[in-house]
């Protein structure tokens, strides 16, 4: 927390060329997009029995990945001022002046346009428009508006981040299906405990830049209660695929173990008086979602 804070949000110093690709790569939030692409892939695999047709598989992953990366880059652009003031983000390419605003804008728009054209021409129009709506949901509705407007910002804004399994599904089938929506609901319920755990740890920084994250507006204890309640809601949501007959026993056992682990960590966060628990919950959430979708995939190929 005692890191030096960057100040300039407009510096246009750009370092020598060879390392610049790293700055662009960083703006796409590659680890977040990688986990999203896993959920896209699982959405594709669950949409059809047997193997996924190659064209939607390749160009769907590519187009959705590019548009999600573009959305993340727009987030870097819009948030460059507050990012420069927070210890977690002050080193990002825009506040540090590693990439100019004009170049970042050109990069984001190009990535979004190429991604959209790939999806529209080589996958299908429904997926292209749904992905575009997700991009707008994250870059415009969440980042530019909700984030600064309400402590429920990430609950509503989380819908954009929850869309990838549906995007994978429609890439392959060209139509909506209730089962894909169940996967969206799971990520939607997962997002608040994922983010609020981090927000507890970074509460002072969000307060400093006037972003009304839940721990800032309603306090740490209230946020811990909400995390626990959402984790229980998530456990219920994780049972829905079994209840509709979409998944089998491997998923039931795997997801139940993961749910118990997550509830245990959230319970501990609320009731144990130990330091570092908030970041443990945050890290656990990432492994939880990754393993959950791997288990979905394993179950699908063993079950179908
Ligand atoms: C509105 C919804 C979401 C919010 C507000 C949010 C917030 C965040 C934040 C602030 C971080 C950065 C932590 C850091 O810099 O140390 C982060 C990390 C991460 N998030 Fe989320 N997240 C959301 C949705 C998602 C979704 C839908 C996924 C994947 C499906 C995801 C996957 C990840 C991963 C993998 C990381 C770790 C990245 C790294 O280590 O570089 N997040 N999240
Ligand atoms: C097309 C499509 C599927 C779009 C989804 C795009 C996407 C990358 C969503 C990620 C959600 C996320 C990391 C939110 C954190 O933003 P923040 O501004 O609260 O966090 P930060 O301070 O780390 O930037």
From TrEMBL:
Annotated GO CC locations: plasma membrane
GO biological process, one term: heme O biosynthetic process
Places the protein is found: Cell membrane
Free-text function comment from the UniProt entry: Converts heme B (protoheme IX) to heme O by substitution of the vinyl group on carbon 2 of heme B porphyrin ring with a hydroxyethyl farnesyl side group.
InterPro entries per record: Protohaem_IX_farnesylTrfase (IPR006369), UbiA_prenyltransferase (IPR000537), UbiA_prenylTrfase_CS (IPR030470), UbiA_sf (IPR044878)
Other remarks on this protein: Carbon 2 of the heme B porphyrin ring is defined according to the Fischer nomenclature.
Single GO MF descriptor: protoheme IX farnesyltransferase activity
EC number(s) stated in the UniProt entry for this protein: 2.5.1.141
Organism annotation: Shewanella hanedai
Leader sequence segment: none
Main location: membrane
NCBIfam families in UniProt: cyoE_ctaB (TIGR01473), PRK04375.1-2 (NF003349)
UniProt protein name: Protoheme IX farnesyltransferase
Keyword Protease applies: no
